[in-house]
Design brief:
The complex is a heterodimer of chains A (about 160) and B (about 425). Chain A has about 160 residues and is α+β, with helices and mostly antiparallel strands. Chain A has five helices and four strands, in the order H-H-E-E-E-H-H-H-E. Chain A has a single domain, classed as Sufe protein. Chain: A (Alpha-Beta Complex). In chain A, strands 3-2-1-4 form a four-stranded mixed sheet, covered by helices on one side. In chain A, strand 2 and strand 3 form a beta hairpin. Chain A is globular. Chain B has about 425 residues and is of the alpha/beta class. Chain B has two domains: about 260 residues, 3-Layer(aba) Sandwich (Aspartate Aminotransferase, domain 2), CATH 3.40.640.10; about 110 residues, Aspartate Aminotransferase, domain 1 (Alpha-Beta Complex). Chain B is about 40% helix and about 15% strand. Chain B is built from 14 helices and 17 strands. Chain B has a seven-stranded mixed sheet with strand order 4-10-9-8-7-5-6, with helices on both faces. Chain B has a four-stranded antiparallel sheet with strand order 13-14-17-16, covered by helices on one side. The chains are: A alpha+beta (about 160), B alpha/beta (about 425). At the A-B interface, helix 2 of A face helix 12 of B.
Chain lengths: ~160, ~425
């Protein structure tokens, strides 16, 4: 297990220069995510056109894994259909939590850079927070998402 | 027995601790983490245990276990003697007047909750005030908030300065004729500040205010004398002072404990029970319903023996050197900011590093075998005061070395370069 598996160049870059890092005043949907254990906090904004995610952005503060994961999320779901984004969420969840490397990260593109996180169990929630928050936004969930709220839902 | 084979510290007077030998007492310090020798710098969260504590617990279970205060058989008597002996050991350790002032509880948190519910709930009225400070651990905030909800009392807070000290000048104005309790940390867990509690207590006593101290972070690092402190309640945990988890101590003035109703009902806390009426046991047993953590008390007594053999003064001196060293080395790192810079501190260093979130710092340090705590340290109001979601915190014990301080600094430097 190498630190560079966790902090790959893509992660360090997206942490330093997060993409789509802005408030979206005219968002159709937004949701908040919170990890009370480490203080990570983010708001995710979505603009829909029919069933297509026309625009997505986020703001907040957190560790490099959570910021980079959110940044990569915005790049990867922009322009996709809602159902497609949900399938990506399921795949990411498996990528982050499956103990053996059964998921081929190649089709995930840059998101595959997060595959090293599963070697660091304490950090899985950092990477998955934004995906749960996106899920909440797409389902117009009013309650903020917490990594500690419903343990059954968490790896 | 010659000086070489003598237990560490005994009879050595003023000689400093022989840390290399002290470390041999702690089996866990020999292990490696992530392929690196363990540098355990998370002592404010929980300390490690010397072999003597582990052995005392094993020996108890192997030779002396039975339930206490019950049977007439030999083992029950032995277990009772060990348990009550541990109580007297703790009594002398903190200089309580009598063993009746020592209540065994699960830890500091339970001790504070016991006082809130048993002393506070019957005593407090609508509009009464409980005074705490801005640097408290959640365990010295939330039990009082619960009590306020139950009684209509108000929580008031002594402010803190940017250095992480309590603002003594603001204190007298916060004491009113409705103030019933002053509840303060003796040492801050998140910043390491040693609170000059005697000044605060003197003023409170002049006004007849009851005083509770949260000593969880003080007892492992300095000589604590509850009579000299002149507090009414003092709470601490075994697991932060080289003893087992799951046991701690509530010291309470005997007259106060006598006047308080029981906290939980059950066996051991009664003298006689009928369906019409129950006569409660004497203190401290009145507060110890059910079979207690006997092995925990035995282990705690062994931990007290261990700390006293080393000497609290020498422990404090060794830890202060580690603190000075860590301050110097960390301050050399560009972008590093110390959080909590009170002149009087225990060996706790809270810090942030520009461009590196504490959580990432924690992972990178762990990868180097350096264990620190990252997060809000159960002191969210302190984090909010400094406008931080979290800090990294290295907390030292007497068994830490100056080489480990260097490894901490090197690992922080590595993290800085990774994110530069």
């Amino acid at each position: 297990m190498d630190l560079r598996d966790l902090y790959r160049d893509v992660i360090v870059d997206h942490n330093r220069n997060p993409r789509n890092f802005r408030v979206m005043p005219d968002a159709d949907r937004h949701a908040e995510g919170f990890n009370p254990l480490c203080g990570d906090r983010l708001t995710l904004y979505v603009k829909l056109e029919g069933d297509t995610i026309r625009d997505v952005s986020f703001e907040g503060s957190g560790c490099a894994i959570s910021v980079a994961s959110a940044s990569l999320l915005t790049e990867s779901v922009k322009g996709r259909g809602v159902a497609e984004a949900e399938r990506l969420f399921a795949t990411m969840h498996e990528l982050l939590t499956s103990p053996d490397a059964t998921i081929d990260p190649a089709p995930l593109g840059k998101l595959g850079a997060l595959s090293g996180v599963r070697e660091f169990p304490a950090r899985v929630k950092c990477a998955s927070l934004c995906w749960h928050t996106l899920d909440a936004a797409l389902h117009s969930q009013a309650e903020p998402v917490s990594t500690e709220g419903n343990p059954a839902e968490w790896p | 027995m010659n000086a070489v084979t003598h237990p560490v510290g005994r009879g050595r007077g003023e000689a400093p601790l022989d840390v290399a030998r002290v470390r041999l007492d702690f089996p866990i310090l020999a292990r490696s983490v992530n392929g690196q020798p363990l540098a355990y710098l998370d002592n404010a969260a929980s300390s490690q245990r010397p072999q003597s504590v582990i052995d005392a617990i094993s020996h108890y279970y192997e030779h002396s276990h039975a339930n206490v205060h019950r049977g007439v058989h030999a083992l029950s008597q032995e277990a009772t003697d060990l348990f009550e002996g541990a109580r007297r050991r703790v009594q002398h350790f903190i200089n309580a007047r009598t063993p009746r002032e020592i209540v065994f509880v699960r830890g500091t948190t339970e001790a504070i909750n016991l006082v809130a519910q048993s002393w506070g709930r019957p005593a407090l009225r609508q509009g009464d005030e409980i005074l705490i400070s801005h640097l408290e651990h959640h365990a010295n905030i939330v039990p009082w908030q619960l009590l306020c909800e139950q009684t209509g009392a108000r929580l008031r807070v002594i402010p803190m300065t940017r250095a992480g000290e309590l603002d003594f000048d603001a204190y007298p104005d916060l004491l009113s004729d409705r103030t019933r309790l002053l509840a303060l940390a003796h040492v801050s867990n998140s910043l390491g500040t040693i609170v000059p509690v005697r000044r605060f207590i003197a003023e409170a006593r002049r006004r007849g205010v009851t005083v509770l101290l949260d000593g969880a972070q003080a007892v492992p690092h300095m000589k604590v004398d509850v009579q000299a402190l002149d507090c009414d309640f003092y709470c601490f945990s075994s697991h932060k002072m080289c003893g087992p988890t799951g046991i701690g101590v509530l010291y309470g003035r005997e007259a106060l404990l006598n006047a308080m109703p029981p906290w939980q009902g059950g066996g051991d806390m009664i003298l006689a029970v009928s369906f019409e009426r129950t006569i409660y046991n004497e203190v401290p047993h009145k507060f110890e319903a059910g079979t207690p953590h006997i092995a925990g008390a035995v282990g705690l007594a062994a931990a007290v023996d261990y700390l006293e053999t080393l000497g609290l003064e020498r422990i404090a001196a060794a830890e202060h050197q580690l603190l000075t060293h860590a301050n110097e080395r960390l301050c050399e790192i560009p972008g590093l900011t110390l959080v909590g810079t009170a002149p009087e501190k225990c060996a706790v260093v809270s810090f942030t590093l520009d461009g590196v979130h504490p959580h990432d710092l924690g992972t990178i340090l762990d990868h180097q075998g350096v264990a620190i705590r990252t997060g809000h340290h159960c002191a969210m109001p302190v984090m909010e005061f400094f406008g931080l979601p979290a800090t990294a915190r290295a907390s030292f014990s007497f068994y830490n070395t100056h080489d480990e301080v260097e490894r901490l600094a090197a690992a922080v430097e590595l993290a800085r370069r990774m994110f530069a």
